[in-house]
Amino acid sequence: MILVLWDIDRTLVYTGDIDRRVYKETFTSVVGRPPTALPARGTGVTMPLAVRELLRANDVPEQSVERLADRIVAELPERLAAHRELLAKDGIIMPGAVAALAAVQQSEHLIATVVTGNLRGSAETKLSALGLIGYLDTAIGGYASDNPHRPALVRIAQDRAAEKHGGRFSRDNTVIVGDSLEDVRTGLEGGARVIAIASGTTTDRQLRAAGAQHVLPDLTSASTLLRLIDQVQAL
Predict the structure, then answer these.
(1) What is the CATH number of the domain that holds 171?
(2) What are φ and ψ of residue 81, in 5° steps?
(3) Please, what's the b/e burial string for 106-136 (b: 16 or more CB within 10 A of its CB; e: otherwise)?
(4) Are 124 and 169 within one domain?
(5) Average pLDDT for residues 63-78, to the nearest whole number?
(6) What is d(CA 50, CA 48) in angstroms, rounded to the nearest whole number?
(7) What is the pLDDT of residues 108-159, one digit of tens each?
(8) Is residue 233's pLDDT more than 70?
(9) Per residue in 211-228, pLDDT tens?
């Protein structure tokens, strides 16, 4: 068995500025004023860390950062869920994502879930709004709500998969499919091979230099993706 850990944003879906809109709304609600700076796009940083960066970038006193960050993180999934119709209307499924997800799901030796910088509620809202959640076993995924340190999410997903399916999952039979330098770092430090997809803000060259074992331009060749996934045990 091979555990396939999908990233979400810019790998499977693109939701434009909806996340940034939610950050702005939640910051304003909790802090009492609108932010003048918002998190950078496409970095792959987990939501709890992005929230702390957001607070510091907007001159919130350091002694208040942790308290306010906890409140914002707690509110983010519900606020995103309130924009479900907007996600369904304006969100974009990345080229080839549906066929690639289906191909992995239909392969009996592959177990598909997610490892993402999103909180679990936010991840499931995005996937369900765009009709992709049925391709993934989100119950065994790793989320920023489990741990803000993204590499730690690999072990969390591996342990959940092992508990459900038996066996043991390690670097030799786990692969991350993602688009950012954080996805590459997550695999290298967390214990997974990395198939990088140059569909986000990071180039093919940057992904390879960071240590990705393979880089694809997009997900439009499901057969190529399956072949590379099956090669992880030989690396």
Answers:
(1) 3.40.50.1000
(2) -60, -30
(3) eeeebbbbbbbbbbbebbbbbbbbbebbebb
(4) yes
(5) 96
(6) 5
(7) 999 999 999 999 999 999 999 999 999 999 999 999 999 999 999 999 999 9
(8) no
(9) 999 999 999 999 999 999
- Written as six digits, the tokens of 135 are 């391709």
CA–chain centroid gap for 123, Å, is 8
Distance CA 75, CA 98 (A): 30
Last residue of a domain, one of 87, 110, 145: 87
Q: Give the type of residue at 71.
A: R
Q: Tell which residue, 173, 1, 19, has the closest CA to residue 90.
A: 19
Same domain, 68 and 155: no
Closest CA to 151 of 122, 185, 117, 119: 185
- Total structural domains in the chain? 2
pLDDT for 212: 95
